[in-house]
Amino acid sequence: MSATGFRLLFAAVLALAIGAAFHSEGKTQRVGFPSLAGATEWLNSPPLTPAGLRGKVVLVDFWTYTCINWRRTLPYVRAWAEKYRDQGLVVIGVHAPEFSFEKNLNNVRWAVKDMRIDYPIAVDSDHVIWRAFNNQYWPALYFIDAQGRVRHHHFGEGAYEQSEMIIQELLREAGVGGVAREPVKVDGRGLEAAADWGSLKSRENYLGFARTENFASPGGAVSDKPRMYERPARLRLNEWALSGDWTVKKETAALNKASGSIAYRFQARDLHLVMGPAVPGTSVRFRVRIDGKPPGAAHGIDVDEQGDGTVTEQRLYQLIRQPKPIADREFQIEFFGSGVEAFAFTFG
Known about the structure:
This protein is of the alpha+beta class. Helix content is 18%, strand content 29%.
């Protein structure tokens, strides 16, 4: 089907879909605009309320700043906020943290500035707004019409053109004239570049004992106690291991002494690691290897061609972005100081 034919078909389906009540998991949810009163702080805006937003089309975007899936949607949300702001669209980012350090307001402020986000942000550190929406996902988009009704939702990445068509239709319903039908043009770069889905054979994995999978160091992980770990002679695809003196905690692996390392066998274009210094304001140098060698042209934005980098903030670090052909590779990161906490590997 041609792009024009698809748009016409989707528009016809959309006209029926947005008139229906909001459903998720087969259960009818509230159609009205859930409360925003649970925000512990607002950034880029005074506090907003459903009543105060009546007459506006609202896009609510649930995010957390270390989520790579959300990060790849950000250029679209940012572009929609800019394109349709003067036509009555209000984008609200609801920051609902996944990791405990993401509750730190200074970290959220840094992320908002670093990622060039200028639309209103509700800081939902206690997940009160999250629960009001009965939300379960990062990223999650909720489309709310000018009458204050949730009309549509989308979870995860993708469907960008369809989502923009819903915004356009809700604006027209609100009586806005001259709403352009052409979608925004987005060129995501760095961490915002779309994943290479065709070569992606590794999925997100956590390093804390509560949610980790495929941990391969001999003897397994000991919860909440310092221990010397070793890597096995060989890792299979999507297995990982520690070397050195680490404490595996509920949501993180914390390095107790210098010269500890993490190895991971993966297959993806991009490898990211959520990590940071245990004490804010400190830093730890590290070195990355891929198949035992400096990454060269396969280095990510947070390391150089020799694989050298520094942990300075609690955030997502892009360590590998390899050119094609994408193959099964072994990644290793060695830290030259203690006090690093590593939370999760993500891929793209």
